[in-house]
Amino acid sequence: MNSMYFTEEHELFRKSLQEFLQKEVVPHIEEWEKTGTIERFIWEKFGEMGYFGLNSPEEYGGLDLDIFYTIIFLEELQKINSGGFAAAMWAHAYLAMTHINKEGDHRIKEEYLTPSIAGEKIGCLCITEPFGGSDVAGMKTTAVKKGDKYIINGSKTFITNGVYADYLVVAAKTNPELGNKGMSIFVLDRDMKGISATKLNKLGWRASDTAELAFTDVEVPAENLMGEEGKGFPYIMQHFALERLIMGVNAHARAEHALDYALSYMADRTAFGKSIDKFQALRHKVADIASEVEMCKEFNYSIAKRLNEGEYVVKEASMSKLMSTKIADQAIYDCLQFLGGYGYMEDYPLARMLRDSRLGPIGGGTSEILREIIAKMIIDKKEYKPAAK
To answer: Cα–Cα distance between 110 and 116 in angstroms, integer?
Structure first.
């Protein structure tokens, strides 16, 4: 236990979450990985336990706890070996619900946040587009105001929960000629006419549903605009800090889990009359992996603490995602090697870990884009500021 960040209450929460995941989730993981569909009942169980409301206001059924409960939630989800299941849960709780909570008015929160916390409604966040990728400002989806409605046209891709979600938080250009200053955020119901979803076939994250979405003349009531018109880009940017830190935390947790598994395997596996954890070449590789993962973890915890205290940590969160996902990928690659031929077998967990981990440097802003953002801040002295209240 790291007493600088985690209290006894945190550790009790971790233990009860571990028990819940083992009892309620792990028995179903193989089925969900095969079908690519997470059954609805588990969302409601998460809701009953309060897991979707860790950082949401009590007024809407949340628990309003500090960020380290979220860190524990993320870390433990990485240790049941389904990156897809973990992604479906945190994309709902920290991507879709973050926007509802921060930009939604009271009516929107009652209609979407309260049932989201209860696990009765599932949300997804729709920003990435087929031709834009990580270039948020290059968005082409439009929302044109007509009377008391907005008409939305365009497409989104790589949307976690995009097939089965009940509502969609959608970014669209309300004034395309203004570039990123003309972007707004809306909440749409799945059953609105003109929304279609195509399920994508992925290398990893097999349990989660990931969609390409098309919007054709979707009529959205004007009151479903969230926050101010034209403020969409800064809203998205200020939440990126949390999203990137989440992906950094996920990375250190899955790398740690892979190493723990590899170590238990190495202690049991013998070659030339001794367990393979006694061979210097492997021992030194373990020392390298453990050191790098520990450095990521400490850095991520310190950034989480600053975020919790209200600092705008967009640079550090970008660094967290960049380095943690890179280190996790290499760590899991090396852990698979420790298992030799068994590492390549689907019956052993490292094969799935390797595939699931590979999304880390791609999703939520590619490593290449993050390097450019960090370079702008360090070399060009560019300053990113939170959206004005």
So the answer is: 10
Q: How far apart are CA 374 and CA 365, in angstroms?
A: 12
Indicate which residue of 33, 103, 111, 243 is catalytic: 243
Q: Do 37 and 86 contact (CB within 8 A), yes or no?
A: no
Torsion of CA 32, 49, 61, 207, to 10 degrees: -10
What kind and span of H or E run contains 256?
helix 232-268
Say whether 372 is catalytic: no
Answer for the pair 246, 313: CB distance below 8 angstroms, yes or no: no
Q: Which of these, 59, 81, 99, 364, lies nearest to 232 by C-alpha position?
A: 99
**Residue 197: which of 172, 215, 185 has the closest Cα?**
215
Residues 112-133, mean pLDDT to the nearest whole number? 94
Does position 384 have pLDDT exceeding 90, yes or no?
Answer: no
- Could you tell me which of 146, 153, 363 has the C-alpha nearest to residue 247? 363
| pLDDT, tens digit, 9 for 90 and up, residues 19-36 | 999 999 999 999 999 999
Q: How far apart are CA 208 and CA 35, in angstroms?
A: 9
Q: What tokens appear for 115 in the block?
A: 């049932």
